[in-house]
């Protein structure tokens, strides 16, 4: 009889105590929430090539504008003649060929091309060179996408 009573008490205490852990429903909800977050966030993190091309193009555009200003300052300091050249100095920047001489390594950056006076940047944006004169630096046309 005593065994019977003890077994009933043990059964009651086992029913009242619950083992720790997550229920199946809680685990499924966490998986669903993680799936939704991954579906929303993954495309932004996986496709950044367009952003990288735009950033690269902006940097190249800025460097080309700086190159034109540095060349103009060099020419002004050297007091170039009206023809645009003096012994030992490069010519004014008037087109692609004259600008490339001022770029590091004497070459256009990767994925950047120049034909005549039109520069095509890595993100396919284009800008045009306005020739340098004795009183103003060469300039590049504004790219509205970079404003």
TrEMBL record:
Gene3D superfamilies, per the entry: Glycoprotein, Type 4 Pilin
Segments passing through the bilayer: 21-42
Keywords: Membrane, Transmembrane, Transmembrane helix
Domain of life: Bacteria
NCBIfam families: IV_pilin_GFxxxE
Record protein name field: Putative general secretion pathway protein H
Organism per entry: Magnetofaba australis IT-1
